[in-house]
Amino acid sequence: MGGQHPESYISGLQVRQRISRKQPKGLPVINMGFNEMPYPPPQSVVEALSGRASLAHRYGSAACNDLRQALGVLHELPADQLICGNGSEELIDVIGRCFVRPGDGIVISQYGYIQFSMIAHRLGAKLTKAPETQFTAQADSILAAVDETTKLIYLANPNNPTGTLMPPEEVARLADALPASVVLVLDLAYGEFVGEDYCQRTHALVDAHENVVVTRTFSKVYGLAGVRIGWCHAPLWMMGGLSAARGMGSVNGFAEAAALAALAEHDTMRDRLRELLSERDRMFDALSATALDVVQSQTNFIMCGVPGEDPALVDRLVGYLFDEAGIVVGPVREEGLGGFVRFSLSLPEHNALAVETVQDFLEQRP
Ligand SMILES: Cc1ncc(COP(=O)(O)O)c(C=O)c1O
C-alpha cells in the first residue's frame, strides 16, 4: 500500500473535524456534508432496533436469509443471487478483493466516487480514470480506457460527488461491449433518486451478462446510514467467491432487523423520497439564482462551482457556512473539482438557510 491518501479523503476528515469543532455562535450544527437523509428512522425501525437489543447475546443470521428473501420479493430478484454486507462499501471492497491482484487495472470515470480510488490504492492496482464530459461518465471513454490489464470497472451511477447519471442505454452499451473478463460494478447507492424503473433496468444487466454486479444500500433513501447495511446482486457463479470474501458476521442482527422494518415502511419512504426530490428542484433553482455554477443532480446532493472555480474561495465559503449558520458541507477535492462544493439536501428550512447564507457570503465577497 502506498503512503499517500487521495486528497478528497483528507477533505472527508476535515468535514468530520468541522463537526467536532464547537460552532462559534453556539448554533445547532446542520450536517449537509455526508449525503445522508435528513429524516430520523420511522418508529417501526426504532422499535425493530430496540426489540433486537434483548437478543444481543445471539449472533445475527450470517447469510441474512430473511432480508435477502424480502429484497428478492420486493425487487423481483432471485434471493440466491443477493449478498448483504456491512454497507455497500464492504461489498464494493469485497468485489475488488475477489477480482483484482496487485498490478491489475481498475478503470473508473474521471470524477468517480472516491472510495473506488481508495480501493485501487489498497489493492495496489493500476487506476485509470476515463475522461468525463460535462461531469458525466461516458461509455466510450471508459471502453477506451480498458486494456489487457483491466480486471474491474467501478461506475457509480448516479455518481458521487458530481450527482450526474450516465443514461441507462449507455450503461447497457458499455456492458455489451466489454470483454467477459472485465467485471463491471454498477453502484446504485443513489439509484432510488432516479427511479424504480431505472434500477430495474440496471439489475436486468446482471441477468444478461456474466460479468455485471449491482450494489445497493440502505444508507441513502432508507435513511439507515448509521446501522451499516447494503446488498449486491451478482451472477450465480460469483456467489461462492463473494460470500467467502465477505466477513461472516459483517451484517449484525440490528442492521438486518432495521433493514427489514424499513422495507415494510413503503409509504413513508415514498413520501420522504417525494419531499426530497421536490426540495432538490427548489434548491437547484435557488442556488442557480446565485453566482454559483450548479450541476444538475440525480441524487440527494448538489455540486456547485464557486465563481472562478477558486479552491481558496471554496474554503472560505465552507468556513462561512459553518461559522455563520452552523452548516457543515464538504469541499470537493477530486482532481479538477477543487473549485466545487457539495450540499447534501436536508430539511426545507436547512436548505433555505444554506442558500441564504451562500447569498450573504457571495454578496460580501471582496
Ligand atoms: C456512490 C456511493 N457508493 C457507495 C457508498 C457507500 O454507502 P454505504 O457503505 O453506506 O452503503 C456511498 C456513500 O456515500 C456512495 O456515495
Structural overview:
The protein is of the alpha/beta class and 366 residues long. 45% of the residues lie in helices and 15% in strands. The protein has two domains: 7-40 and 267-364, Aspartate Aminotransferase, domain 1 (Alpha-Beta Complex); 43-264, Aspartate Aminotransferase, domain 2. It has 14 helices and 13 strands. The strands form three sheets. It has a seven-stranded mixed β-sheet, with helices on both faces. Strands 9-10-13-12 form a four-stranded antiparallel β-sheet. Helix 5 links the parallel strand 3 (105-109) and strand 4 (126-130). The longest helix has 23 residues, at 266-288. The radius of gyration is 20 Å and the shape is globular. It starts with 6 loop residues before the first helix and ends with a helix. Residues 1-10 have low confidence and may be disordered. Bound molecules: pyridoxal-5'-phosphate (PLP). Residues 35, 87-89, 113, 156, 160, 187, 189, 217, 219, 225, 230 line the site of pyridoxal-5'-phosphate.
